[in-house]
Design a protein that fits this description.
With 408 residues, the chain is an alpha/beta fold. Helices cover 45% and strands 9% of the residues. The strands form two sheets. The chain has a four-stranded mixed beta sheet with strand order 1-4-6-5, with helices on both faces. Strands 2-3-7 form a three-stranded antiparallel beta sheet, covered by helices on one side. The longest helix has 43 residues. It is globular, with a radius of gyration of 26 Å.
């Protein structure tokens, strides 16, 4: 069951987790009726003609220009040297060669588990943002040669819903500091791979809009509830309980319930996969490496969130997110959540080192998000149990709405 909140983006755009979909359109030729003349004319029906249809079995359905094949060939040779691609992956196309190796790499790093919760793209591309066919033709027409760099780009088409309030109450029964410790380590690791929308984002949104409200309007608005709904276990301990101390608490505690044990086990596993990793925002790419990147970032909007952490469905955080989600991407393309460049015009040894670094990051991301998916599934189960106990109907539909925002 999908529990994600769809953002305002065409879900058909991009390559979802290394799967390539053909976007070629076939135009049917119109069949015209016989022309009508003012007088009758003789019509002769001749003998049937022999017609031969070519066999299309084995013919490639996708056409790639040299702009696609050239960079893919350079990267493919590096992936072959690193053992990510194999000789038998070759079918005559460098693009297909890289795709097969990349797909297998993703499968080996638990992409199937990650896709149970996270809805997004992880792709190798020559552009930091999605472009139309016309835009791509314009870019290629202006090029003097084949591109000298590619990117590993990660983005999210929907924000995964994580109603964590009931889970925090369970953890507080184990230890007063456990909810804050769990929240601190969980969000710190999620931030390595995505933009996280939680109560802090809700507070910033509420403060911005409350500036223009009268005192009476402010008191009656949902914005006031953002602060009021923060659980005491988070409000009292979240700020003083930093990541290192929170992790030490998780490692030393011995929970009495199976749910708490599973949550902590998966969280420590998630943390281990992400050790030493930092969020690869596009802003980390220097102007020296990619000329024009600073200007593009200035014109682009903030990244779409990969998840929405609320206390309960339909709370004040949810309301703030709904307002922001309706306007995401209106003033320009949204930055991807992850962007790592691969320079192709460098010596072979350096190319292999850079490719290995980028793919190591991708592997750590997928494994960490696979463990995070286990955590989110448990949190949702706990929340469903809370709903049954309190006989509350869930606020999210089974599938995302067509407008891109959760339907009430």
């Amino acid at each position: 069951m999908s529990r994600s909140i769809q953002s305002r983006r065409n879900s058909q755009q991009g390559v979802r987790l290394a799967q390539i979909h053909s976007e070629r359109k076939r135009n049917r030729r119109p069949i015209f009726a016989a022309s009508q003349r003012g007088h009758s004319s003789a019509r002769v029906i001749g003998l049937p003609l022999d017609v031969t249809f070519p066999r299309l079995k084995g013919v490639r359905w996708r056409y790639c220009t040299r702009w696609d094949e050239g960079p893919a060939a350079v990267l493919g040779m590096s992936l072959l040297r690193l053992g990510i691609c194999r000789p038998n992956d070759w079918s005559g196309s460098a693009v297909d060669f890289v795709e097969r190796g990349f797909s297998r790499f993703c499968s080996q790093n638990r992409v199937v588990d990650a896709k149970k919760v996270w809805v997004g793209d992880l792709r190798i591309t020559d552009s930091l943002f999605e472009v139309t066919g016309q835009e791509r033709n314009q870019v290629e027409a202006g090029r003097e040669g084949i591109t000298d760099h590619l990117y590993l780009v990660g983005d999210y088409e929907a924000a995964a819903s994580i109603p964590i309030g009931a889970t925090l109450a369970r953890l507080e029964a184990e230890h007063p500091l456990l909810p804050a410790a769990f929240y601190q380590v969980f969000t710190t690791n999620l931030y390595k791979w995505m933009r996280v929308y939680d109560y802090i984002d809700g507070q910033e949104h509420a403060e911005t809009w409350m500036e223009d409200l009268s005192e009476e309007e402010s008191e009656a608005s949902v914005y006031r509830k953002v602060d009021l709904e923060i659980p005491a276990c988070i409000k009292a301990h979240a700020k003083p309980l930093k990541y290192r101390r929170a992790k030490n608490l998780l490692q030393g505690i011995r929970p009495s319930t199976g749910v708490a044990r599973e949550l902590i086990r998966h969280l420590l596993e998630m943390d281990a996969h992400g050790q030493g990793r930092e969020h690869a925002w596009p802003g980390h790419i220097s102007e020296v490496d990619v000329p024009g990147i600073d200007e593009w970032i200035m014109d682009a909007e903030n990244s779409r969130p990969g998840c929405l952490i609320t206390w309960y469905e339909n709370d004040a955080i949810n309301a703030c997110f709904d307002e922001e989600a309706q306007h995401m991407g209106e003033n320009g393309p949204c930055q991807p959540n992850v962007a790592l460049p691969i320079h192709l015009d460098v010596p072979m040894k350096r190319l292999d080192q850079e490719t290995r670094r980028v793919f190591d990051h991708a592997g750590a991301m997928l494994r960490s998000l696979a463990s995070a998916a286990k955590i989110v599934e448990i949190i949702r189960d706990v929340y469903d149990e809370y709903l049954r106990e309190h006989r509350i109907e869930p606020g999210l539909p089974v599938e995302p709405g067509a407008a891109g925002v959760r339907e009430e």
